[in-house]
Please model this.
Amino acid sequence: MSVDAVILAAGYSSRVGDFKPALNLYGKSILQRCIESMSDFCENIIVVGGHQYDVICDIVRDIPKVKTVKNEHFKLGMFSSVRSGIKEVTSNRFFIIPGDQPVVKKETFKELLDHEGDIIIPRYKGKKGHPVLFDSKLAVEILSWVDTEILRNYIHSKKQVIIVDVDDPGIGLDVDTADDYEMIKKYYKDVFEK
Model:
């Protein structure tokens, strides 16, 4: 069964003070690290950019399986990027993950793919996170929602949601602030640089 991924990387990164996808995480950008963790499991990885779109294109230019899509309406919020990315999905299933979550373990992607269902969400110590795995039959319905919606609202509207407990704090670690960035650098060194 084929799998694509949609990485959301269109925002302003205003709280960090620098452009998040390009921040360095041990020799590669945060966006590259995000792609790295899922690459073994996906046929296509769709990176949705908006703000500093040219920088996004430069970061991923030589990475296999990756295509970029520009969300012209990224100022309307993250759901507009979800919709932009889903339009490019050609697989049976697809992941959605924000581009500032570079420390999700490869095992988590595999564990989610081992389950069947319309929407599959990882959970660590009682807290849900990303990536979320969707059945592609939901794409038409998601695309019918407006750009200013919230993905969480769509998920809450569905009854067929499967929660998978994973041993992975990375599903909830993202780079919203400069402090988050420092914490993720430490976490990456402790977990991935052993």
Remarks:
- The helical segments are 30-38, 53-60, 78-86, 106-113, 139-143, 151-156, 178-192.
- The chain has one domain: 3-192.
- The longest helix spans residues 178-192.
- The chain has a mean pLDDT of 95.
